[in-house]
């Protein structure tokens, strides 16, 4: 399915941000969302072009919305997308043809036809890229929060073309995490580990997200896995110490805090580790 960003839709159709927002509020087009990213299909472009042509012919968008609602009731359908309607208008009134039958939710007629071939020619087709080129594009895009949806799409292209490449799975999981989709991040890290069970970073990231999802027992196993593969992984000791405290495994937590301080005694988090150990000592005294 061809997907277009909001910016691409505005450029292809020559719309303003205000026009598109207004027509969406009227539910004349229904952009989709996946993982928090809004996108439009080619059918949406056709629908929007229909709306643009009708409003240019002085058909108010609200009247078009009412016509579509009446048509839905007459057809007994939950949706009557503009891509399947033959619109006829005299600038004030609307007649609709659907499936060969003419319906007059609002009376009057003047043929107002259009085709989609010109629109298809205007659509910019993304050039085919190698997995390495998609990966480079993703790296370039991921630093800026505004372009992270583009980075996600680029990483998805990489894993489609070369699923055994582990790093894109990990980076994709991190982007989903930053977008607030913890569950999808977990799935990405698990896919990375399916291809490379000995990847310490994937174990660490997975354990950290599982902890945020309040699944501490699973988180502990993943963080332990990261430390088995990299015994000097300071951040893994820090996170594992917190997880163990939540699980009541205080002796393991103490060992982790001490090892963390051995590895990273000058970081801002080292003071927290010292406070935890001190509090634990006071609690046992």
What keyword list fits this structure?
single chain; 285 residues; mainly alpha; 3-stranded antiparallel β-sheet; two-stranded antiparallel ribbon; 14 helices; 5 strands; 6% strand
Descriptive notes:
- The protein is mainly alpha-helical and 285 residues long.
- The chain is 62% helix and 6% strand.
- It contains 14 helices and five strands.
- It has helices at residues 6-13, 17-25, 42-56, 61-75, 117-122, 131-142, 148-161, 166-178, 182-195, 200-212, 216-229, 234-247, 250-263, 268-284; strands spanning 32-34, 37-39, 86-89, 94-98, 101-103.
- The strands form two sheets. The chain has a three-stranded antiparallel β-sheet with strand order 3-4-5, covered by helices on one side.
- The protein is elongated.
Write the layout of secondary structure elements.
Elements lengths: L5 H8 L3 H9 L6 E3 L2 E3 L2 H15 L4 H15 L10 E4 L4 E5 L2 E3 L13 H6 L8 H12 L5 H14 L4 H13 L3 H14 L4 H13 L3 H14 L4 H14 L2 H14 L4 H17 L1
Antiparallel strand pairs: 1-2, 3-4, 4-5
Helix pairs in contact: 6-7, 7-8, 8-9, 9-10, 10-11, 11-12, 12-13, 13-14
